[in-house]
């Protein structure tokens, strides 16, 4: 499986059977899985959404959004619980307006699962942790 590093965004080849063995990046030597969402930007988005073979769960959010703020701990807890099955990333729609426009984001929070550049699923609005994890299981 091809994985993008959450630190340097370099691509790494990791056998599927070794995903849970705490693999490290071949370029920067940092862990490929941190158990925490990473910040997505125009510079690193395609490495994770298009080139990486791991499904990317994106939380489109903004700092001024109350529901986004209340969902943030749920998103982080889910990342800690079910990574390495998915890569988790947060995309600030205020600072990354071109990416938000590319995906037609009209309300936040919007959750999206992307793999190989294709949208596998999309959900508008926050949800409880168990409902969120249940929603994600259909994409694993």
TrEMBL record:
Protein name per its UniProtKB record: Thioredoxin
One Pfam match: Zn_ribbon_Thio2
Gene Ontology CC annotations of this record: cytosol
CDD domains: TRX_family (cd02947)
Keyword terms, alphabetized: Disulfide bond, Electron transport, Metal-binding, Redox-active center, Transport
Family annotation (NCBIfam families): PRK10996.1, thioredoxin
Family to which the UniProt record says this protein belongs: Belongs to the thioredoxin family.
Keyword set includes Disulfide bond: yes
Keyword Protease assigned: no
InterPro entries: Thio2_N, Thioredoxin, Thioredoxin-like_sf, Thioredoxin_CS, Thioredoxin_domain
Annotated ranges, domain Thioredoxin: 36-140
Any GO molecular function: metal ion binding
Domain of life, per lineage: Bacteria
Gene3D superfamilies noted in UniProt: Glutaredoxin, Zn-finger domain of Sec23/24
